[in-house]
Protein 1
Amino acid sequence: MNFSIESKLPNLGTTIFTKMSKLAQEYNAINLSQGFPDFPPNQKLLEFVKQGLDENHNQYAPLAGLISLRKTLAEKLFKSYGSRYSAEEEITITTGATQAIFTAISAFIRKDDEVIVFKPAYDCYEPTIELYGGKPILIEMKAPTYKIDWQEVSAKITSKTKMIVINTPHNPSGTVLAKEDLLQLQQLVENTNILILSDEVYEHLIYDGKEHQSVARFPKLAERSLITYSFGKTFHVTGWKVGYCVAPEELMKEFRKVHQYNVFCVNHPMQWALNEYLQKPEHYLELSAFYQERRDYFLQQIKNSRLELIPAQGTYFQTASYKNITTEKDTDFALKLIKEKGLATIPVSVFNKNQKDEFMLRFCFAKKKETLAKAAAIINSL
Ligand code: PMP
Ligand code: GLN
C-alpha cells in the first residue's frame, strides 16, 4: 500500500457476536451466544411476504416507510403506552434498530458532546458516538442486579451532556427499568437540553407480569426521546433487519435528514408483510408468555448446576455467575466452553467498562427446547 490511512476507530475489533457465532460453527458447538432464535417465524408472516412479492410491492418504499405500516404502529404505540405519535411525522421505518440507533446518534452528536452510556451496554452505542467525535461517559451497573445509581448519573451530567442512552429490557443483563427509574431520569433531565435515546427492542419480552416501562409512557421524557424498536426481536426474524424509530416531530425531522442519505428507504415487501401481520395484536402480545416458558424451561433444566443466577426479567438472555466453577477470565472460560465442551456463550466483560471481569456469562434462550436441553446437559456437567 503506497498511502496511509488513519482509522477513525483505531481500537475497535470485530463484534463478539460475529466471533462467537463463527467459533460455534467451527467447533460445531450449541450456540447460545449471539441472540437469535433457532426456530422459524410464524408461517402466516412468511405467507404475507410471498403475497407482498407476488402483488409487486417491489419498488422503493416511501422515505419514512409505508404509511399503512406507520399508521398501524402509531395505533400500537397508543394502545401499548397511551402515547400519540403522528404516523406521518413521528415514525420512521429503519434497517433494524442498529440503523435507527446509528442515525439517531449521528443526527445529534457533535465533536466533544458527552453521551451517558450505562455499562454493560449493547455494543453499537459507543463506536457510533465516537465516530461523530462525541465522548461516551460510562456509568457502571454492577452484577448481578445491574441497578442504575441515579445519584451517580446526576453527578456525571455536565453542560456538555447531549444525550443519555437507556436500554430496557436490557441486553446483556436481562434486567428491566422500573417506573421509579424513569421518574428519576425525568427529574434529572427536566430543564436541560439533554436528549434520550431509548433502546426498547425487547419491549415485548418481559416476564413475571412486569410491564415494559417505555419512555413513551412519560410525556416529559417522550418529548425529548428517540425510541428504537426491532421487528427482528418481536417476530423471530433477526435476519430481515427491519425496525423503526419513534420521536417527536422536531427530533424526527433531523433524524430523517440523515436517514434519507444513509438508507433512503427500507425493504418494501417486508414492510408490507409486517403491516398485514401486525393487524393481529396477539402476534406480539403472546411473546412474553412464549419466551417466559423457554426461560423457565432453561432455568429448570440447570437448577442443579453450579451456576448462580437471578431469573431474567426481560429479553431472551439469561446471565449467570460461574465463579463456583472457576475464576478464570470470562473470555477464556467462554473459549474453553466452545472448544472443549461444545457450548457457545457470550462473556459479559466485553460489554463492561474497561472490560471488567465479574465472572458472568450470557446465555440466549431463544432456542428450541431440545437445544436448551442439550446446552443444559453441558452446563450441568461443569
Ligand atoms: N439494541 C439491542 C439492545 C440489541 O440487543 C440489538 C440486537 N439485536 C439491537 C439493538 C439491534 O437490533 P436490530 O437487529 O434490529 O438491528
Ligand atoms: N443483538 C444480538 C445479541 O445481543 C446480536 C446482534 C448482532 O449480532 N449484531 O446477541
Note: The longest helix spans residues 67-81.
Protein 2
Amino acid sequence: MARRKKIYEGKAKILYEGPEPGTLVQYFKDDATAFNAQKKDVVDGKGVLNNRLSEFFMTGLNNIGVPTHFIRRLNMREQLVRSCEIIPLEVVVRNFAAGSLSTRLGIEEGTPLPRPIVEYCYKDDKLGDPLVTEEHIAAFGWASQQDMDDILSLALRVNDFLSGVMMAVGIKLVDFKIEIGRVYEGDFQRLVVADEISPDSCRLWDIETGQKLDKDVFRRDLGNLTDAYTEVARRLGVMPKSAQPMSKPTLIN
Ligand code: C5P
C-alpha cells in the first residue's frame, strides 16, 4: 500500500496530500491540548465528533454563501478540503466575556458584550499567539486592508450563522475562533473560512444551566469532554445515537 504524503501535523489535526491538485485530506486526531500544549491528553472519540461537527458547520456556511475550504467528509475522521494559504491570524469573535478577555480586562465571565468584539492573534506557538492590532497586521504585511475588510465580514457572518444555529438548540455561542485561508483562482485570490469549527474552537454554554459544552471542560477539568461534545452533536442532530463513537472495545452479549 502506498504511503500518502503528510503535509503538516498540528496539535489536533494532520493534513495529507489530497487525491486531486488543490485538495488536502484533513484528519482529526483524538489529541487534546490546552495552554499552548502544556496540558495534553488523548480523548477517545474527540476526532470523530469534531470531524462531524466541523462538517455540519462548514456545510451550513457554504450553503448560505459564506465560502469555506470544506469540500466533503470522506470517513469518520477525515474530510476533503481545498488547499489554501493560511493567513497567520487567529480571528476571535466574542458575544459574551469569557476566557482571556475576562482575565485581561477583569470582566466577569458571562457578561453580555454590547456588540460582538473581533480580536486578532498572531499565530505563533512559540510566542503564545499574542493579541495584535490591525496596525501590526498592516505593518508586518500579514494581510492587506482589503483582506481585513473581508476577514471582518466573514467573521461576523460566521458569528450570525453559528449563534442562530446554536441558539435553536438551547446553546449560547459565547465566543469562537476561526482561521482564514487564501485560495487562488487564476489571477484572483479569494478568502475562505479554513481549519475547523468545533467545540475545540468555540465556547458553548447551555442556555438554561450554563453548563459548558466545549474545550473548557478539558482546560478546566470540568468532566468528560467526549460527553460534552456528544451532547452538542446530539442536539444538532449530527450524530444519531446509533453512530456514536465507540471509544473502547465493547463486549456485546
Ligand atoms: O482563550 P480565549 O478566551 O482568547 O479564547 C477565545 C476563543 O477562541 C475560545 O472559544 C477558544 O476556544 C478559541 N481559541 C482557539 N484556539 C486558540 C485560542 C483560542 O480555538 N489557540
Note: The chain has six helices and 14 strands.
